[in-house]
Amino acid sequence: MKKGDHLFLVDGSGYIFRAYHALPPLTRKSDGLPVGAVSGFCNMLWKLLQDARNTDVGVTPTHFAVIFDYSSKTFRSEIFPEYKANRSEPPEDLVPQFGLIREATRAFDLPCIELEGYEADDLIATYARLAREAGGDATIVSSDKDLMQLVGDAVSMYDPMKDREIRVPEVIEKWGVPPEKMIDLQALTGDSVDNVPGIPGIGPKTAAQLLEEFGDLDTLLARAGEIKQNKRRENIIENADKARISRELVRLKDDAPVVEGLADFVLRPPDGPKLIAFCKAMEFSSLTRRVAEATGADPSGIAATALEIEAGAAAHGPDVGAGKAAAKALGGPTRPDTGNVYATPAELAGKRAEMAGAIPFDRSGYETIVDIKTLDAWIAEAREAGVVAIDTESTSIDPMQADLTGISLAVAPGRAAYLPLGHKSRDGDLLGGGLVEGQVSLRAALDALAPLFSDPGVLKVGQNIKHDWLLLLQHGVAVTPVDDTMLISYVLDAGLGAQGLEALSERWLGHAPMPLKEITGSGRNQLRFETVEIADATPYAGEGADVALRLWQVLKPRLAADGLVSVYERLERPLVEVIGRMEQRGIAVDRQILSRLSGDFSQTAAAIEEEIYETAGERFNIGSPKQLGDILFGKMGLSGARKTATGQWSTSAQILEDLAAEGHELPRKIVDWRQVTKLKSTYTDALPGYINPETKRVHTSYALASTSTGRLSSSEPNLQNIPIRTVEGRKIRTAFIAEPGNRLISADYSQIELRVLAHIADIPQLRQAFADGVDIHAMTASEMFNMPVEDMPPDVRRRAKAINFGIIYGISAFGLANQLSIPREEASAYIKKYFERFPGIRDYMDRTKEHAREKGYVETIFGRRAHYPEIRSSNPHHRAFNERAAINAPIQGSAADIIRRAMVRMDGALADAGLAEVRMLLQVHDELIFEAREADVDKAIPVIREVMENAAMPAISMAVPLQVDARAADNWDEAH
DNA sequence: GTGGTCTCCTA
DNA sequence: GTAGGAGACCACA
């Protein structure tokens, strides 16, 4: 760049928001894709370029670039954690447009500039400085006051929406101060949008007046005592520090370490066909025509660009690089030479599914990486591709106590490699022999891979990536950003089949991957993976990564095609790391307490056993329902027997309780025996086996994609079913403890599902009751039985409570009758009465069933889908079951989504509050368990409550408040 | 050893 | 009536 050259810097991010709000909404005709901001942006750019090129009035750009924010995390958050903290999430229909606007920029053949850790404004400041220093001029296309500090002799601004130039006089006219004082002015006034504090009570007018009087901020703060107005003087003295911090927040950094130089910004003549291809994809007909006229290109021969619209959502998160890379790897618009002809996400997704099986699988084609040089070559290839599928092999299923055996990588279909790291010879002692020759050392390999695995510009794809994430974290390697084919499939197809690698591969690739058993064998002689020959391991491991990569290529575009990008981006992808950290933390369990309880239960059980044998007159296996049934209903001939599905006598607790109520001794004893033996075997005896020998804590595993509704599930051990209902059972909970000097905090949503129901079905009485904080079951009883809420008899309330729960479960007379032990006719009458009082509930149920029948799925308030393909079954039982599940899913699922949202935000909120050491450990559907230092507890509880109670916002503004009860104690029993 | 059944623990 | 996981037993391989 030289004297006389002129650089145009377009504030892309600023324009997006402005265009979105200022212009009428616009959607693409063929599929409803929101494109209003994209359209505004394209028209603005086009006009800008045309005006500049065609007129001799004004300035003509020689250099041109469009600048974007990378993400909201910048150095400013470090100076002031609350910076932009109150900024709400962008509107749902704007999110996909972020990526599209970047694509638009590229279609215009203009540089698309962004940089991690910097806002667009900083990059603009940097390039404006560079232009100035080179002797040229710069025009900033924006009207943002934050940029006005840059205006000067060589730098001006241009507001494209008002067609107005902003130079020094305009700044003075608008703000009362010259550009160089804008920083001080903003430091005083603050900015509520960005959460820059400033000084309370000082607006632009006062600030300008003060700066006029004192010259600059430092002088003002130093001589604040001279200010006459009492309130103002006190405010300034008191908040001087805030003003200083604010100054650092608003001061733009003009020395950002930018990659592209001004030479990269030289403006080229328009590439008509490229731009027309994009306009066609967006279905911008008039712009297509204008571009064609101006460039002389013939639009009829130009195919629409293929667009990876899901990259748009990614581009909004902390992983813009990955979004771009993803588009590249998918053969998207960053490689326009690959002959794209698919205009809509749906078309692209369809094409991908078609192509999935096109490249045959060749297990013998996978490479084994045996030296660092080869590994480096694969790493380079992964960087070039921008996306790499990974799969880890290890010595244990449990990532918390597994050693790495190997890692496989895939960068393109069929292009995969296996890096063996911990393979051992089979001979030697029981523990196996030493490491097999010809393996890269673990340390060297991880050192080489770590930068790739944490490169924000390279997306790491995996099937159930939380497992690999955690395993690698245990080996000191961070993996980010990630995509998970299992979770993508779950968002798309929950309820339509399994999300395992095998199932997905067969469903989408028509290929059955090699079963593990094929190389390890099975049974007594089964090999541990680390003793498998490397030559045998490579085809298996390489295939794992290859399959994951191909699945990703097929499934990812479907998110955009089905409108499920935000479900994945907000409720699934961020949870991988959140849950991974929870699993890694684990929870302390007191072995002694469990051991003592086990002894107690053991004695109780033995005593009851003897009594049972005596009463029964013989010894038998009490734990065998078959033998027990024979004793009770055969030998003793008790009445009231019922059969199970397979024709056996039922010995369920319900039956035994009924018999006990008739005065029979034995059934009571069986129930008691079952209780203690259950507690002993499932809890006191099993839990100690899960205590990790290294961490001395229990690390459960949460499945993110195993339920049809969006709930998590917990296993090995299941910490979501720790007893609470009985006195004896609760004792188990006292064994879950905080470390010394710490406490457990339990925070649980009160009646979240009924609140969700009140919101979804919009029931006035329920809304009122929750707003007033009255007893919801008593209120229901009052409505149904025409009794005052005050002094509601417990039994009447109990019935209402059962009905409320029944509603959530998709009520049936049969079920309610069972629950309340009343005749089915009576239950039917209750339900009828309930629907009379709450007709909105019946409407909701009918509506939901109808929706499920029509579309095959139902949705939560956040758009998560649960599929019920069998709701049209001709089997009435089957059908009714699916209907109840479909009625329940939006309620249970919305509640699950809410707590997911809370969990995604929790760690950040705690860190922002200076509570980074408060650790979220467990989730039990409507409850979160934390561990915190005693000193942090009182500060943590309000933060936790705040995050949980506001978790639905801003996506959904609930019609009823969410209420969270939280408490801290030394153990889980007392905390709950 | 594996898988189905029954039972019971949670929200 | 919804959603889960797990232990014990038992028949089958």
From TrEMBL:
Its EC number is 2.7.7.7. Residues 366-560 form the 3'-5' exonuclease domain. It is an enzyme of class 2 (transferase). Residues 5-268 form the 5'-3' exonuclease domain. Residues 729-936 form the DNA-directed DNA polymerase family A palm domain. One of its GO terms (biological process) is double-strand break repair. Belongs to the DNA polymerase type-A family. This is DNA polymerase I. It comes from Nitratireductor mangrovi. The lineage of its organism: Bacteria, Pseudomonadati, Pseudomonadota, Alphaproteobacteria, Hyphomicrobiales. The gene is polA.
